[in-house]
Amino acid sequence: MRLRPLLPLLCCLPFLAVQGSARNQCPIEKVKAERLPDLNLPRGGHALFCAGGELTVVGGHTTGFVVTPTAEYYTDDEWHMVSTVYTHDDGLALPLSSGRVLIAGGHERNLGIGQSFEAEMYDPVAHTFTGFGCLDQKRALAAGAELDGGRVVISGNWYANDAIELFDGRQHFDSIKQVAAQRCEPFIFRIAKDDALIFTSIDNRGGHNDSIVVDRLQGEPFCPPLLQQWRPCSFYNSYNSHDAFIGDEQQGIYASLLCVSQPSSSPNHLGQVAIALVRDTCFTLVHTDSPIPVLSPITGDSIFYYPYIVADRSVRRAYLTGADRHLRFYAMCLDYSPLFGKSGGPDLTDEGASCLLTLYYTDPLPGCGFNATPVLTPDGHLAIVGGVVQPDLTHNNFSPSASAWLIPVGPGGTASPASLPWPWLLVAVGLVALAVVVLWFMRRRRPVTDDDTVVADDEPVPARHADGALMARICELMDQQKMFRDAELKVSDVASALGTNTRYITDCIKQNRNQTFSQFVNTQRISHAQQLLRQHPDMKLTEVSFESGFANERSFFRTFKAITGMTAREWVQNS
Q1: What is the DSSP letter of 303?
Q2: Packing angle between helix 502-513 and helix 491-498, nearest 10 degrees?
Q3: What span, in angstroms and rounded, lies between the C-alpha atoms of 439 and 459?
């Protein structure tokens, strides 16, 4: 029997063994969280969102459970404080398609007491708040969703009766419908341009509804069969239901993701957790390649998932986040692209497809307030800012956190595979050694022939002396066409422009500059930014960042400091 045809199989055996051991288990990757500067004020009960490309927190309460009429936005590596017109502790904050943010309601007084009418609008360009009217009824822990035409449907209340009201997009709020069940902080999922579903498992006094009734803006209440077995996971926290939207409004496709769980005999975790797809009035479970783990694969402790899903529609990934008692952060990533079928079009053509899961985790994050709902940053990562959860995962509204963390889970993040279990590692090492011995033995027994020559399928590998010429062409392309100014530039774009393939581009840059493609492009961008700052010292840093090819200010500031060792302002002062 000739062993040479079996060599590829022998080399793969370690990986097949490991794959077999991990069957039906979610892949695990560790990420390194980045500590951002702390807020100017510790905050709990605040709203966190991205507006104008900036992380922004509004309202909430600070130390002593005292409401604060302030907001903060993050730019140029620091938090800037601005005043709001009213206080909004556990208030509604809804980014609108106009770019402005509707802020409304919240507790009337310190200690989370009462509800309020007040509504105002935030302009992220001018960083100003303008009071303009009041809700139809006092509300705290309410939620909203924008319909077509700028109208907003609002529902939810805390220790007061609920109803559905509509904001006309300009100034007026009008009650339009009673609710079939009292709720606080409900999910409001759009199912058409002028229709939405309103539901949750928590009533307006923090109790759990035994039966889940879904209100419909343009229809009658109903009870989805799925929600009789799987309960929607809910929590008392500000959340924008549009973050879970995965459809395409321009194409008239309305679909959202929902975290659900089954009852558990343990009070320390949610029980088995799953993700449901909500489309029209249908609730169906999303098929995944493995179950969502409810125990930490690192410590064995329970993972407490915060039930709000954040979707990155640009790459069709969604995140369900949580923590354990050691203050590790977990982000369960769902690659939901299989739902769109092989064509990858905007319509959900294969709702029965199996989606891929990956569990990201961090080291313990001291001072992190995990109950503050994470938001997606413009570069596809997750941010956690403020919050009131202590190490035992219990609330302490009197001592909120001021910490801010960035979790790099997006494409191009700092994920690294978790360690393999040591028994399988030993097996893998042994099998690799066996494959090497067999290959060595065969090499000694049989001389190399022409049949062993490996020939490329498409084109010959360029000679090493050509690397310098290719590098010169790459640099010429950057200098003359300034391709680095494209924030979405990919290595395939450069390869196409030079009539070669992506491997030659990346290998050439690595050999000549000892950089990855991304590092090389960012170096070009920072060099261009420095030139702009020299020639136009009065130019705003926001404009410099966009002119240099960065998708947002945060990425510009971080890259500038990594390359130059200084912030952009420090560099300007020292130039």
Answers
A1: P
A2: 100
A3: 28
Query: String of b and e for 19-56 (b: at least 16 CB within 10 Å)?
Result: eeeeeeebebbbbebeebeebebbbbbbbbbbbbbbbb
Partners of 274 in the β-ladder: 260
For the stretch 491-530, pLDDT in tens is 888 988 888 888 888 889 988 888 888 899 999 999 999 9
Instruction: Identify the residue whose tokens are 């419909």.
Output: 216
Contact status, residue 124 vs residue 76, Cβ threshold 8 Å: no
CB 316 within 8 A of CB 381: no
**Closest among 137, 10, 150 to 431, alpha carbons compared:** 10
Amino acid identity for residue 272 in this structure: Q
What are the backbone dihedrals phi and psi of residue 325, each rounded to the nearest 5 degrees, phi first? -70, -15
Task: Report the sign of the C-alpha dihedral through residues 441, 446, 451, 456, in that order.
Answer: positive
Rounded Cα gap, residues 272 and 51, in angstroms: 35
Report which of 318, 308, 193, 187 is spatially closest to residue 246, judged by C-alpha positions. 318
- Asked if 269 and 297 count as a contact pair (C-beta separation under 8 A), the reply is no
Strand partners for 404: 36, 385
CB 568 within 8 A of CB 541: yes
> How far apart, in whole angstroms, are the C-alpha atoms of residue 93 and residue 46?
9
269-305: pLDDT as tens digits: 557 899 999 999 999 999 999 999 999 988 888 898 8
Write down the number of H helices and E strands in the chain. Answer: 10, 32
186 within 8 A of 203, measured Cβ to Cβ: no
Contacts with 313 (C-beta within 8 Å, 6 or more apart), sequence order: 245, 246
Element (H, E) at 554: helix 553-564
